[in-house]
Write a structure and sequence with these properties.
It contains 5 helices and 37 strands. By secondary structure, it is mainly β.
Length: about 500
């Protein structure tokens, strides 16, 4: 029986997915008879289905794009039912294991069930054999949680090839998390194949932001976007953090060196032979530093403002070698403390430096601090040594309870359950503080991919989801690595042409 396309339906997905409305049901068919459904005589399988990406037992935002997936069970037909307490269930049927969920019914179902459970039932039909009809197998129901809190609608990241020292293409891209639209913000073909590295925002907004550049033809400036104005600052911005007022930009200046090993699970390594933190005042258009930020016997990097602007957190390690142009003899002994210093915006004055967690106490190097918008949690990457956790397979994300630090002066590092056995790095909070985006190598141990994890009020990070794609096979052939995922509440309005002209 052939299905006729009804008025008002549209083709979606990769393999001509036809969305049609039935009574109390949304059906999507992938070249398959949508009226052929599993009956009551299914063979019950006492295990969850294998699906890729792993979207089993996850917590997802109520405004996320469909979690399209592949069923990794052999069969001649596939049937998936997605349902919750409220709203119309969605059914997807097809001859291939590729499950592409229609977007509008998905959005309605999630919106109607915030804080509830999303059930996914997977059925696989075996091929017919001589004299025997094909029989359906029913797997255990996948139960996912729809969080009550939304995630910021947009995420901005850098896409680059995972090369050692050279590149051809890279760019800063913006993705709409409610769907699958990706937009290039600035690509390096405008810079004659130069480097686009750090991008930073104010309070998850895009009206005050910066992008750092490195180019043989254009030097190493930074682009500042303030409201509708774009300006080029002739100063090299490294790792960057905007003061919540939008009037101060703290950034590091790093002398970076890359080294290689002849044999290891990760042959690359990075270290700073010298680094300092400086800051840019947007009102006076001046670059400054201060004694707590620029000690000659220390390496300072990774600045991060507290949401009230009263403290600047950063990482600091001692300089234990004399020749700044040579590789230190004991590179594996370089570990960074997590420190902070108070700041008064009105008087432009800095207080005394204090240690939050020392590397000696933690037995690890502490890197990439980010404070939640409510000021309660500080998220930090930890690894065995050094300053570049993306190259350290043992790198984990840990939370520090800043309320506990204020009460006891003895903060504790708590390893997130969202970690894996691969490198975790480059993280950011959503504006409401309930979501984190981070980079992880858990899929291949080579490419960094973007993950989203829910963080509840007790600071527990739930099982993360891989950034969903319209084609569930996307990551099988994607040779890009994604880094510096920053969650923002609004799109970047400056065009590529405007940024290139600046």
């Amino acid at each position: 029986m052939k299905m006729r396309r009804r008025p008002g339906t549209r083709t979606i997905g990769i393999a001509a997915v036809l969305a049609v409305c039935a009574v109390g049901l949304v059906v999507a068919s992938c070249g398959f008879d949508a009226h052929t459904r599993p009956g009551r005589d299914c063979e019950v399988v006492g295990s969850l289905p294998r699906i890729r990406p792993d979207y089993c037992g996850v917590t997802l935002p109520p405004n996320i794009a469909p979690l399209n997936f592949l069923v990794e069970e052999k069969g001649a037909g596939y049937f998936v039912r997605i349902a919750a307490v409220q709203g119309t269930p969605i059914e997807v049927a097809g001859r291939t294991p590729q499950i592409v969920i229609p977007e509008r019914p998905w959005r309605r179902l999630l919106a109607a069930n915030r804080g509830g459970t999303l059930n996914i039932e997977v059925f696989v039909r075996a091929a017919a054999t001589d004299g025997a009809a094909a029989r359906w197998r029913r797997f255990e129901t996948i139960q996912n949680t729809i969080a009550p809190d939304e995630i910021d609608r947009y995420i901005v990241y850098r896409r680059i090839r995972p090369g050692h020292a050279t590149w051809r293409e890279m760019g800063i891209y913006q993705r709409d998390l409610s769907g699958f639209e990706e937009k290039a913000i600035l690509t390096n073909d405008y810079l004659k194949d130069g480097c686009l590295n750090c991008h930073a925002f104010t309070d998850n907004r895009t009206d005050a932001m910066s992008i750092a550049l490195r180019s043989g033809d254009f030097g190493s400036p930074a682009l500042l976007i303030e409201g509708g104005r774009i300006s080029k600052i002739a100063t090299k911005f490294g790792y960057t953090s905007w003061h919540p007022s939008g009037k101060v930009v703290a950034f590091s200046v790093n002398q970076v060196h890359q080294v290689f090993r002849s044999a290891a699970s990760e042959i690359r390594d990075v270290f700073d032979s010298d680094s300092v933190i400086t800051y840019y005042r947007t009102d006076s258009r001046s670059v400054k530093t201060a004694p707590p930020l620029s000690r000659k016997d220390r390496l300072e990097t990774y600045p991060a403002w507290s949401p009230d602007g009263r403290f600047l957190y950063f990482c600091s390690a001692p300089v234990t070698w004399d020749d700044l142009h040579a590789i230190p003899d004991k590179l594996e002994e370089i570990r960074y403390d997590l420190v902070r210093v108070s700041y008064d915006l009105d008087t432009d004055t800095w207080g005394q430096l204090e240690t939050v967690v020392s590397a000696q106490e933690a037995g690890k190097s502490l890197l990439l601090p980010r404070v939640s918008p409510d000021g309660r949690w500080l998220l930090v990457a930890t690894c065995d040594y050094g300053c570049f956790p993306v190259y350290r397979a043992v790198s984990d994300l840990c939370l520090i309870d800043l309320d506990e630090f204020a009460r006891t002066d003895r903060p504790k590092l708590r390893r997130l359950d969202a970690n894996s056995d691969a490198s975790e790095s480059w993280h950011s909070f959503s504006r409401n503080g309930r979501w984190i985006a981070f980079s992880s190598k858990r899929l291949s141990h080579i490419f960094t991919r973007t993950y989203l994890a829910y963080v509840d009020e007790q600071g527990r990070a739930h099982k993360p989801i891989l950034l969903p794609q319209k084609n569930p096979r996307f990551y099988d052939s994607c040779l890009w690595t994604f880094s510096l995922p920053e969650l923002v509440t609004e799109p970047i309005r400056a065009s590529r042409t405007q940024l290139a002209r600046a």
